[in-house]
C-alpha cells in the first residue's frame, strides 16, 4: 500500500493527472459553449478559463521537471539558485513579460466576446495595467538589489540552516509571507486563465525561494 502511494504521488504523475483533468474541463466547456450558441446565449465560461489556466500551470511544471530530470520529490534537492546577475536580469525580464501578457489577455477575451464590440473595452485596462507594471518595477528592483547584498547562490533552494538566529527568523517570516502572497496570486491567475502571468508567477516562486535560501545560508560553510 505504501509503495503504491509512493508511486502515485511522484511529481510527474501528479501534474500529468492535473493536465488530463484540465483537458477534460476544456472539452466540457466547449460542449457547454456549443449548447449556449444553439440557444443564442453567451455566458462567460469559468471552466474554460480555469481549464486553460491549469493546462499552462501543469505544462510549465512538467517542462521544468523533464528538463531538470526530476522524477521523485528528493530530486528537488538538486535545484540550484541562480547567480546574482542572472537573478537580477531574469527577474526583470519575467516581470516585463506581463506587459505583452496583458495585451494577449485582453485581446483574447475581446475576440472571445467578453467585451462589447462597439466599445473600446480593452484599450484602457491594457494602458493602466502596463503603467502599473512599469511603476511596480521600481520597488521590485529595490527589493531585489537589497536582497542581493546578502545573497549567496545556494546549491539547493530548499536548504535550511542548522541554528536560526533572530535575523534569519525574520528573513524566513518575510519570505514566507511573500511566497504565500505569490501563491495566492498564482491561484487567481489560474482561475482566470491568465497564461503569461501564470508562468511569471511560477518563476517568481523560484526567485523568492532562491533569495530566501541564499540569504539564510550565506554565513554557513
Structural overview:
Helix content is 72%, strand content 0%. It has eight helices and no strands. α2 (11-38) runs antiparallel to α3 (46-67) and α5 runs antiparallel to α6. With 221 residues, the protein is mostly helical. The chain has helices spanning 2-8, 11-38, 46-67, 84-96, 98-112, 123-148, 166-192, 195-216. The chain has two domains: 1-78; 80-221, no CATH class.
Outline the secondary-structure elements:
Elements: H1 2-8, H2 11-38, H3 46-67, H4 84-96, H5 98-112, H6 123-148, H7 166-192, H8 195-216
Helix pairs in contact: 2-3, 3-7, 3-8, 4-6, 4-8, 5-6, 5-8, 7-8
In short:
The protein is mainly alpha-helical and 221 residues long. The chain has helices spanning 2-8, 11-38, 46-67, 84-96, 98-112, 123-148, 166-192, 195-216.
Amino acid at each position: 500500500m505504501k509503495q503504491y502511494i509512493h508511486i502515485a504521488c511522484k511529481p510527474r504523475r501528479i501534474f500529468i493527472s492535473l493536465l488530463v483533468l484540465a483537458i477534460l474541463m476544456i472539452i466540457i466547456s466547449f460542449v457547454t459553449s456549443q449548447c449556449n450558441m444553439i440557444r443564442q446565449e453567451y455566458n462567460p465560461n469559468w471552466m474554460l478559463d480555469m481549464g486553460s489556466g491549469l493546462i499552462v500551470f501543469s505544462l510549465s511544471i512538467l517542462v521544468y521537471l523533464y528538463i531538470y530530470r526530476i522524477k521523485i520529490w528528493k530530486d528537488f534537492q538538486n535545484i540550484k539558485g541562480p547567480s546574482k546577475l542572472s537573478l537580477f536580469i531574469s527577474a526583470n525580464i519575467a516581470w516585463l513579460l506581463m506587459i505583452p501578457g496583458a495585451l494577449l489577455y485582453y485581446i483574447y477575451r475581446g475576440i472571445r466576446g467578453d467585451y462589447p464590440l462597439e466599445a473600446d473595452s480593452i484599450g484602457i485596462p491594457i494602458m493602466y495595467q502596463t503603467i502599473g507594471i512599469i511603476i511596480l518595477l521600481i520597488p521590485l528592483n529595490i527589493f531585489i538589489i537589497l536582497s542581493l547584498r546578502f545573497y549567496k547562490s545556494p546549491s539547493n533552494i530548499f536548504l535550511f540552516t542548522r541554528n536560526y538566529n533572530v535575523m534569519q527568523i525574520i528573513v524566513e517570516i518575510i519570505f514566507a509571507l511573500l511566497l504565500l502572497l505569490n501563491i495566492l496570486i498564482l491561484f487567481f491567475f489560474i482561475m482566470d486563465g491568465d497564461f503569461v502571468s501564470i508562468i511569471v508567477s511560477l518563476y517568481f516562486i523560484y526567485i523568492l525561494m532562491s533569495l530566501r535560501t541564499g540569504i539564510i545560508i550565506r554565513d554557513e560553510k
